[in-house]
Amino acid sequence: MTKIAFIGLGNMGGPMAAxxxxxxxxxxxxxLVSALLQASEATGVQPASDISQxxxxxxxxxxxxxxxxxxxxxxxxxxxxxxxxxxxIDCSTIDVASARKAHEMAKAADCPSLDxxxxxxxxxxxxxxxxxxxxxxxxxxxxxxxxxEAMGRKxxxxxxxxxxxxxxxxxxxxxGISMIGVCEAFALGEKLGLSHQAxxxxxxxxxxxxxxxxxxxxxxxxxxxxxxxxxYKPGFAAALMLKDLRLSQEAALAxxxxxxxxxxAAQLFALFxxxxxGGRDFSAIIEMLRG
Length: 291
Ligand code: NAD
Prior knowledge:
The chain has helices at residues 13-22, 34-41, 51-55, 68-81, 96-108, 121-127, 138-149, 163-191, 196-203, 211-214, 238-255, 260-277, 285-289, and strands spanning 3-7, 26-30, 46-47, 60-63, 87-90, 113-115, 118-119, 130-135, 152-159. It is elongated, with a radius of gyration of 20 Å. The protein has 2 domains: 3-161, NAD(P)-binding Rossmann-like Domain (Rossmann fold, 3-Layer(aba) Sandwich); 166-289, Orthogonal Bundle (N-(1-d-carboxylethyl)-l-norvaline Dehydrogenase, domain 2), CATH 1.10.1040.10. By secondary structure, it is α/β, with parallel strands linked by helices. The chain contains 13 helices and 9 strands. The chain has a 6-stranded parallel β-sheet, sandwiched between helices. The relative contact order is 0.09. α4 (68-81) links the parallel β4 and β5. Bound molecules: nicotinamide-adenine-dinucleotide. Nicotinamide-adenine-dinucleotide binds next to α4, α6 and α11.
């Protein structure tokens, strides 16, 4: 049993902290929103009145926050309140530069650290089946692994500081681009008089196959569990896809990488969000692409 502090009990952090409790860990939690603290208390998390109370006596601290600036602010408070040697793990999706800065802050405080963003969404967080992509030293990863295993099914060590965030934004850039490609193909097929099922049967077993068609088909019918069958309720909200695509473009700019399709995908999802679709599943972009 490990004593864990969990900071950020939102859509993802709430169920992740609950799974740590289920696995037998003692978990103290903190969120700026008191209703979320109460909801977590009902799952066995001990509510704290602030960050320093939450991290008091913790062996491991986990953060699950919206953006890089929130993580850097929270880590400043955390690192000021914990003894050296306490492991600090950030599971948020944030820019690579902020992730590396957080690691540097932890190193200066003599605390091992890991960036460990996740894939799998709120359903994966609730089911404890998330994929973790981790960046940090092998020692930090080895210490964090049993904790992450209580919240996820696949835990991948991607490399040194920031490598987890790098893997996350590269993966989601592929996803954003591939979903647009699949949507365009279905929209073209419709104009050509091709049935959704016929295109699915061919493309899902041919060279067009990918997660966006085989598992998450953006039209109703061929994959009954995809959000297209549920009025495009997320799933993975378009606003979160846009956030990740923007992070990929920030990273491309910073490193000089050429990602023209990533840039186009970011622009299309920005337009889609501007039209009031940020809260819908990202595969609903097919409606905009139909014109
Ligand atoms: P959320 O907004 O529901 O939760 C974030 C929580 O952090 C909020 O409750 C907020 O009050 C809290 N918070 C902010 N600053 C704080 C501070 N200083 N101290 C304590 N609490 C603070 O967001 P979410 O959907 O849970 O996502 C969290 C992270 O996970 C994001 O980086 C997101 O991109 C990533 N992510 C989300 C999903 C998803 O499907 N929701 C999937 C993969 C990754």
